[in-house]
Amino acid sequence: MNDLPEEIKHITEGFVPLGTLLSRLAQKTHTQLMEEIIALVKMPAPAPAVNGNSAHAGIAMDDTSTENLAKKTKILNFVQEKHAEWVKAAVIARWSRNAQSVSKLIDLVWLLRKQQERYQAVIHAMAGIRYSSTLARLPNPDLRTALQVLSTGTAPWMPDFNYILPPPLTAKEQLQWVENLNTLLSIRLNLEDYDTLPYHFQNYTIDSGRVTFKVPGEFEVDLTIADEDLTKQFWFIDFRFDFTPTPPELSETLRMHLESKVNEVLEKEGLAGCYKFLHELVLTHKITEYVRQAFELSRGRWVDTLKVERLNRAMSIQYWVGRYPPEGPKSWIILGVNSGKKAGAPEDPKSTSYLTLRWFRDNKEVKDVDIPFNTVDISTEDLLNRVIGRHVAYILGSIHSKLKSNGRFTKREAGLALDIQLDDPAQSSLRMQLGHAYYVTVGISSTTGMFAMKPQSTMTWKGEQRLNWHSKDPAQDGLACLEGVRCHYVVDEIIRRGRSTGWVVCKGPVKMDIVKEVLSLRETGQLMWLKRRGWTEQWYIMVSLSLSGDKWFLLEVNSQPNNGETHITSFAKLPLSSYAPNLEDKFFTNLTMFTAAMISHIIDLRALHKRRIKHVPHDGINYSLPANMKVPSVFIRLSDILRQPQSDKSNKRIANWAHDFVEIMFRGARNSATKPHISDRDKTATNGTKGPEDSTEPPKESLYAYMDARLKVSDPDKFGLLKGHVERDVAFSRALGVFALRLEARVGSTVLDTLAHRLQAIDKLADCVDAIRRSDRDIHCEEITLTKVVVTYTDHKKSEGEMATQSDGKRWKATLELGPDKIKLSFERGNPQLRAMDLFRELINSSLRCRKLPFYLSSTLPIHRALDSVEDAWVDLAMSDRGRVQVFVAHLDWFNIHYTLPGPSRNPHAVRRLTLQIRLRCRRESVEWELTREEPGAVKKPDDEFKQALEKVYNAEGKVWRSLVDSASSKTDHRVGDLIRAVDEAVRRLAMQSPTVLKQTQPKGQMQAKSQAQAVYHKQMAAGRPRPQTGQVVVLDD
Question: Has residue 414 got a pLDDT over 80?
Answer without folding.
Answer: yes
